[in-house]
Design brief:
Strand content: 35-45%
Number of domains: 1
Structural class: mainly beta
Number of helices: 2
Largest sheet: 5 strands, mixed
Radius of gyration: 20 Å
Number of strands: 11
CATH topology: Immunoglobulin-like
Bound molecules: copper (II) ion
Length: 169
């Protein structure tokens, strides 16, 4: 191939694209977070004994009417940006970050208000109360360990609106 000025530019841009797509050179660790539910009746299961919070009795997450999904389940330690999107059409959601209790205990939970006790759980940051369709970001310096992302709108955590993520050293 004859190297013309135009070809050279194409070659160079190809090289840039290649290095940019190599994960170890990523400038920022981004976790895309979807906050979702299955519509306006999603709250109907509340109070029917199906407590789907982490470490709570019932389980059966396949039944969950709302939840949090991340595009990755683990990420390297350092600066992490959580890009949260409320994919609901009807319901306000939020995303709170906390460490998973080391002994496998459930998060401290208030059955009166149906919310996790954020201060006791160790709130590491949050994107609070996103309207349907809204986005928000949380940037945190993270150490290796296991963390939980949950929604603390009343009832949502017990309905299964949480997920865990591993930060690797
Ligand atoms: Cu929620």
């Amino acid at each position: 191939m004859k190297i013309t000025r135009r070809n050279l530019l194409v070659l160079l841009s190809g090289m840039v694209a290649t290095s940019a797509s190599t994960p170890s050179f990523a400038a920022a660790n981004v976790v895309n977070v979807s906050l979702w539910d299955k519509g306006p009746n999603s709250m109907d299961m509340l109070g029917k004994g199906k407590m789907m919070g982490m470490g709570m009795m019932a389980g059966g997450m396949k039944m969950a009417m709302m939840g949090i999904t991340t595009d990755v389940k683990k990420i390297p330690a350092g600066n992490v940006t959580f890009e949260a999107t409320n994919d609901s059409k009807d319901i306000i959601h939020e995303m709170v970050l906390a460490p998973v209790p080391a002994d496998g205990k459930p998060l401290p939970y208030d059955t009166e208000t149906e919310r996790v006790k954020e201060e006791l759980a160790g709130n590491l940051g949050e994107v609070s109360e996103l309207d349907p369709g809204q986005k928000g970001a949380l940037r945190v310096e993270m150490k290796p360990g296991k963390y939980i992302l949950y929604c603390n709108i009343p009832g949502h955590y017990a309905l299964g609106m949480w997920t865990t993520i591993n930060v690797t050293g």
